[in-house]
Design a protein that fits this description.
It is built from six helices and 36 strands. The protein is of the alpha/beta class and 597 residues long. It has a domain of 416 residues: Ribonuclease Inhibitor (Leucine-rich repeat, LRR (right-handed beta-alpha superhelix), Alpha-Beta Horseshoe). It starts with 5 loop residues before the first helix and ends with a helix. 39% of the residues are buried.
Length: 597
């Protein structure tokens, strides 16, 4: 074929060039696939040529002795002598090179410290006794016996010798008793979870290699001083949980040797005195829980150094003074701040608006006064409707520590852990706040709960409150609010708790909305009318489900009127027509008895 002109010749050259590159690419792909095939054949042959190590005979015998002492249901069904390779037994993990048993995962539920290891069996419970054959597993580094049904007995002395070489020990959620000895011999870093048992006595001494210590929910008593103070070296402890014991005295002011701490839980004890200033040395601290003690005094300024704090829980104490303005400037990472049920006074500082990561602000049940800061819309974490992580976690060298919190929502106090990171809440109730509810509050469009009750707030409910479409709980009761209920409130489709009682609200409750599904007690003590309220001439009966929804919408008020008249006549008539109070009382009791039966 003869090329007719230059343009056709150029097109042909371009075509040949593309074809050339295409052939080179195909050659490269073919070579790559051939190499991949050879590699797979080589590795498979190599792995088949090396036998996997089976367990050590002496360790298999030790496991069988351990099983003999346990009431194990079907959990350890394959722990049998005829199954020679104990490394294949359920809940037993061996070193893949040496064959030594390194882990026994005999717990019945997940640990507090998150682990990527998967369980080999379901959640079953063990009982019986602990066997000293555990000491024959010389290479054991991980032992989990949590949440089982062991007899309520004292831990044998030999058991604590395991801590000298273990890296993880979890015996939480059992009924073990007795005192915990000093644990000073462990050479490796140790995660130690002894929580939710019945241990008594004072806090044990620990070695500097313990990284996580959970002694929560026991019956430990006494002071922290011997445990905490007089340390010569820096301790490696990252998580300290002493919640739910009977510890007392002042929290010692000697935290300088504990700089690795990430989380401290001292809730629900009997501590007194002030918050020690030496806690300011804990610059890695992310979670500090001191709830429900008898602490007093002001928040020390030294906490300005704890700039990594994510959770600050000082609720249910006797702390006083003003909310420190530096919190909004220095603790910029705060997610949770709870100072409820204390004696704080003064204004809510405007600097608190600088906490852009804050999702939970609870300053309820204090003596705060002044206006709600109009800059509250700067709490941008409460604006986003995007779901954040369901948990608030703290990374340690041994895994993740998950935070928990007691919060009041919908009139009920509940503990939140798995969903704490999803809660977005503002609670300023039971203070002496005044002024109007700032319109900027309605810009917090990710809020789940808003509680401003029991203050001296005036003015109208912000007209744009319906913009907070995620709201599930609204409590504005016992204020001096006036005007109508905004029509936009009918747009709150997730609202399941509402209390507007004891205000100066007027007008008709917006009709044709779910507002009619709430109890009439949600509007008690106002000048509102319309369903679910009875007619304006009839008082609204008190209810024990204030704020909650009811199924029938409106309640018939004739039953109330009839009941009232009958009750009145039963009392008034005997008084008017008898000379003896004894006879009067007798007749009333007789009527009640007849009605009862």
């Amino acid at each position: 074929m003869v090329l007719r002109n230059c343009s056709e010749k150029g097109a042909c050259n371009a075509y040949l060039q593309v074809l050339h590159y295409w052939l080179k690419l195909m050659d490269f792909v073919a070579i790559y696939l051939l190499m991949l095939l050879c590699f797979n054949i080589f590795t498979n042959s190599f792995s088949k040529g090396i036998p996997q190590p089976s367990c050590i005979k002496s360790e298999r015998q030790a496991l069988l002795k351990i099983k003999q002492q346990l009431k194990h249901s079907d959990m350890l069904a394959d722990w049998k002598a005829r199954n020679e390779d104990c490394c294949r037994w359920v809940r037993v993990f061996c070193n893949t090179v040496t064959g030594h048993v390194t882990e026994l995962q005999l717990g019945s539920s997940k640990d507090t410290i998150a682990s990527s290891r998967s369980k080999k069996a379901g959640s079953l419970k063990l009982g019986g006794k602990l066997s000293p054959a555990l000491l024959d597993l010389k290479h054991l580094s991980y032992l989990d016996l949590s949440n089982n049904d062991f007899d309520p007995t004292q831990i044998p002395d030999w058991f604590w010798n395991l801590t000298s070489h273990l890296q993880y020990l979890n015996i939480s959620g059992n009924q073990f008793q007795g005192k915990i000895p000093d644990l000073l011999t462990n050479q490796a870093s140790l995660v130690l979870d002894l929580s939710c048992n019945n241990f008594t006595g004072s806090l044990p001494g620990i070695s500097l290699n313990v990284t996580v210590l959970d002694l929560s929910n026991n019956v430990l008593s006494g002071s922290m001083s011997q445990f905490l103070c007089h340390k010569k070296h820096q301790m490696k402890l990252e998580v300290l949980n002493l919640e739910g014991n009977h510890l007392s005295g002042e929290i010692p002011d000697c935290w300088e040797k504990w700089r690795s701490l990430v989380a401290i839980e001292l809730c629900n004890n009997n501590f007194s005195g002030g918050i020690p200033s030496s806690m300011g040395a804990l610059t890695s601290l992310e979670s500090l829980h001191l709830r429900n003690n008898h602490l007093e005094g002001e928040i020390p300024d030294s906490l300005t150094n704890c700039t990594q704090l994510l959770t600050l829980d000082f609720a249910a104490n006797h702390l006083s003074g003003e909310i420190p303005p530096w919190m909004g400037e220095r603790l910029s990472k705060l997610i949770v701040s709870s100072f409820q049920s204390n004696r704080f006074h003064g204004h809510v500082p405007e600097q608190i608006c600088g906490l852009s990561s804050l999702q939970i602000l609870d300053l309820s049940h204090n003596n705060l006064s002044g206006n709600i800061p109009s800059c509250i819309n700067n709490l941008t974490a409460m604006i986003s409707r995007k779901m954040s992580s369901s948990k608030i976690s703290y990374n340690t060298s041994k895994g993740y520590f998950f935070d928990n919190m007691a919060l009041m929502m919908k009139g009920v106090t509940l503990d939140y852990s798995n969903t704490l990171g999803l809660i977005k809440l503002v609670d300023l109730s039971d203070n002496n706040l005044s002024g109007e509810i700032p319109a900027e509050m309605t810009m917090l469009t990710g809020l789940l709960s808003l509680n401003l009750s029991k203050n001296h707030l005036v003015g109208k409910i912000p007209s744009n409150i319906g913009a907070i479409k995620t709201l599930e709980c609204v409590d504005l009761s016992e204020n001096n609010l006036s005007g109508k209920i905004p029509d936009s409130m009918s747009e709150l489709s997730f609202l399941s708790y509402l209390n507007l009682s004891y205000n100066n609200l007027t007008g008709q409750i917006p009709r044709g909305t779910q507002l009619q599904s709430f109890s009439a007690s949600s509007f008690l003590g106002t000048k509102l009318y319309g369903p679910p309220l009875p007619t304006s001439e009839t008082p609204v009966p008190a209810s024990n489900i204030v704020g909650g929804q009811v199924d029938n919408g409106t309640k018939a008020h004739w039953n109330f009127i009839c009941g009232f008249l009958c009750g009145f006549l039963c009392v008034a008539c005997p008084v008017l027509f008898t000379n003896s109070w004894d006879a009067c009382i007798f007749r009333i009791l007789t009527k009640l008895k007849i009605k009862h039966f």
